[in-house]
Amino acid sequence: MVQRTLRRQAQDFLERPFVAGRAQIFEYSMTAREKSLYDGVTAYLLEAQILAFRGNQRRLLLIGFHRLMASSVKALAASLLKGADRLHRMLLARVRNFIARAETVLRDSKAEKLLDVMRVIGVRLPDRRRVVTFTESLVTQGYLRDLLIERGGLGPEVITLFRSTNDSPRAASALAHGQEEVGDQLSPDQRPSRSVAVRLALVHEFRTRSRVFNST
Question: What one-character DSSP code corresponds to residue 87?
Answer without folding.
Answer: T
